Amino acid sequence: MDNPYVIEMLHITKRFPGIIANDDITLQLRRGEIHALLGENGAGKSTLMSVLFGMYQPEEGEIRKDGKKVAINNPNDANDLGIGMVHQHFKLVECFSVLDNIIMGVEPNRFGFLQKKEAREKVLALSEKYGLRVDPDALIEDITVGMQQRTEILKMLYRENEILIFDEPTAVLTPQEIDELMQIMKNLAAEGKSILFISHKLAEIMAVADRCTVLRKGKYIGTVETKNTTMEELSAMMVGRNVNFHVEKKPAEPGEVILDIEHMTVASKVHKNNAVKDVSLKVRAGEIVCLAGIDGNGQTEFVYGLTGLEPLVSGKVTLLGQDITRASIRYRSTHGMSHIPEDRHKHGLVLDYTLEDNIVLERYFEPEFTNSMGFLRRDNIRSYAERLIDEYDIRSGQGPITIARSMSGGNQQKAIIAREIDKNPELLVAVQPTRGLDVGAIEGVHRQLVAQRDAGKAVLLVSLELDEVMDVPDRILVMYEGEIVGELDPKQTTQEELGLYMAGAKRDEVKA
Amino acid sequence: MLLLVQYTLIFASVLLLVALGGCFAEHSGVINLGLEGIMVIGALGGALMMRYAPAGIPAFALILLVLLCAIGFGLLYSSLLAVAAINFKADQTIVGTALNMLGTAAATVIVKAINTAANPDDVSSTIQYVNQKKAFIINIGSFQFNWFMVIAVIALIIAYVTLYKTKFGLRMMACGEHPQAAASVGINVLKMRWAGVLISGVYGGLGGICYILAGVSEWKFENGVAGFGFLALAVMIFGQWKPQRIALAALLFGLFRALSNVYTGFDLLAALNIPGTVYNMMPYIVSLVVLAFTSKSSRAPKAEGIPYDKSMR
User: Fold this and answer.
1) Residue A329 · residue A309 · CB < 8 Å
2) CA distance linking residue A66 with residue B212, whole number of Å
3) Close Cβ partners of A16 (under 8 Å, ≥ 6 residues apart)
4) Cα(B7)–Cα(B214) distance, rounded to whole angstroms?
5) Among the four residues A79, A138, A286, A507, which has the most C-beta atoms within 10 Å?
6) Contact check, Cβ <8 Å, B167/A112
């Protein structure tokens, strides 16, 4: 009797001090299927894959390959069993060529000397067979993220892996690249490869997977056939309650211009040329404007220029009718601008300070928190922090005196949002505010942004997430290579059209 | 003029050997600041062998024994860096600095002890090798050919082939660039880094013995190797961690070092009447200037200096 399962993980339990990361989880992968593994951050997906890869040893349960029990003690064992993985953060050596990266670890050699010719032929044959376009001689640092990902896939194919794991593979891709990847995955499955697809993006799972296993808080929730289920059902399984995907909001009522940027140019730290080139835009009261684009097209530098973290090369920034082009960061902060930074560890929090100190970080100098002698008024800081913790539902181990570093990413973000919104700004600059948060928390952040808008504030959202770009704002500006190449109405446009602008395939002349 | 060429070549050989050693360590991901100390200890090994080698031994055997001894001492000494930096994840800069201080001090103590034991009045830290040195040198006309020039060229070829043409080199460089990527394809990062550091010990030890045999026929170990280990690091950086470019950089720095020995032989330079100390300073000043202008665009192995932690991404 043929066993239909190529890999089975049966009743896996993995404990860490104080937490059960995997609690009796079963995952069965059929030969030639695409099997999605769905769960929020911290649901145990990574731990389960680490067990399969031999990074961790489970306390209970067993792994079977083709029905036979196997022991996987390290990544080499996994490789010997034909298990390969495309990691979320690519494991590629940037200054090596594509070919070198593919053969690394299994180099064809004669007496230790590399035989690159054979390797090249094999790689070219594989790339032809599966439609994975790569240039074997290009250096990794010079090629696109999409091609880097194809290199990772070729790495697995070169090793003749039968079981391919994709860890959140679409997070870094443009919509067109995502479509291409989906097609590649289908081709691979058709060739008899078995694919595990780790994701929390429901639309992609519905589009490409045959079956889906859902984890929640370390527990096994169930395995469903995607053709018999809906996105709503999957999300309810994942989160444990019904989630509203669409941000509910009234039509915007834009008022006067709050932020007016004229011809902003910002230098790049990495390259010699300018990262932001002659960008002009306006944000009005009562609207959410989204600056969309693929990571690294100048959004970061734009925000640095706007918030004062970097000086402008040229251009003018006007906030509430006042020229703030050369104003200090504190001046901007105390005169109507709030900033939820992209990197909350670098610019958002002092990680080794307490939660309460982080909460007053932009206001500690006000008379309410510092007396005339220059000493901090600890009692006021404490009560202020307690009020915000309560209002914004910031959860932490020890309340106001919790060290920020020990808090979860979601609650760190809530603390920043509380601090920035409670300042009652006229302009809220929110840069990737939902980065690294799970579905439930994302919903909360989006609601806050809309609430600000409805209160008549201006909101400038910078986002890389397509769903967020389509759903939250009233107006989309697409940034490509430091320029604004399109202005779109989220109600009129499609993800495909947005993708074309983001990839630079389409552009309009945009006037501010 | 011939003298200038001769000195340039021999000093370039020293710098090339040591810089290639540093290049191996850094490509595996370990910064080897202890090259200076490794050179001293390697030189000590070679010098001791010359002192104790039986008098009538054939030149070829003597060369071989001296080289092996220098290599062995360098290898052992570099393993201190490997243990501390790789296994115990110590700060590589501090370990390297410690090795430098220990190297000169230990060599001085050892040589003094040996000298005093042989002759209670002798408290110097000097080893003489007037006769033994002749084994390394062939006079071609007025040009003193030194076997180390050949050794350096061979070392260069070996380094180039190893790094770029073998699977060992590919794997080692991966460990210096992205050790997590290397580990994910089953490469043992710690082993590769050990290999890199030990090779740097071999090259450093060779460079050390080459240095003390370059000009003089006795060596005072109190002097260490006069900053040549650091000069070699500058050569390595100027050479952008690439063997062929390191060779050119070594020639350039070797030329400046040689000038200080022979500038009096040039009428033009002698007529300038610049104090000799200025020429002595030249290689160091040049290295400062060169690094100030090139280090911005330099591309060191990305993961060098960072202890390998497999849980990092």
Assistant:
1) yes
2) 65
3) none
4) 8
5) A79
6) yes
The dihedrals phi and psi of B191, each to the nearest 5 degrees, come to: -60, -45
Element (H, E) at B95: helix B92-118
Phi, psi of A292 (to 5 degrees): -105, 165
Mutate: best of B167, B187, B240, B304, partner A, most A CBs <10 A: B167
Q: Is the ipTM of this complex over 0.85?
A: yes
Of A405 and A34, which is predicted with more confidence? A34
Per residue in A119-152, pLDDT tens? 999 999 999 988 888 999 999 988 888 899 999 9
At A430, phi and psi to the nearest 5?
-115, 110
Exposure class string for A175-186: b at 16+ Cβ within 10 A, else e: bebbebbbebbe
Neighbours of A260 (CB within 10 A): 18
8 A C-beta contact, residue A56 and residue A9: no
Q: Considering CB atoms only, which of A93, A107, A109 is closest to B178?
A: A93
pLDDT in the model for residue B311: 59
- Nearest-angstrom CA–CA distance, A81 and A91: 20
> For chain A, percent helix, then strand, then coil, each to nearest 5?
35, 25, 40
**Tell me, what amino acid is at B72?**
G
Residues from chain B that touch A75, judged by Cβ atoms under 8 A, are 183-184, 186
> Are the Cβ atoms of A112 and B168 closer than 8 angstroms?
yes
Residues 6+ apart with CB under 8 A from A127: A133, A134, A150, A154
Q: What is the mean pLDDT of residues A298-314?
A: 91
Note the pLDDT of residue A1.
46
The residue written with tokens 């021999």 in the block is B10
Identify the residue whose tokens are 């697995």.
A156
Question: A190: exposed, middle or buried (C-beta count within 10 Å: 0-12, 13-18, 19+)?
Answer: exposed
* pLDDT band at B64; cut points 50, 70, 90: very high
Q: How far is CA B66 from the centre of its chain?
A: 16
B268-277: pLDDT as tens digits? 777 878 888 8
> Between B170, B180, B302, which is nearest A114 by CB?
B170
Query: Does domain B2-298 fall into CATH 1.10.150?
Result: no
pTM for this entry? 0.77
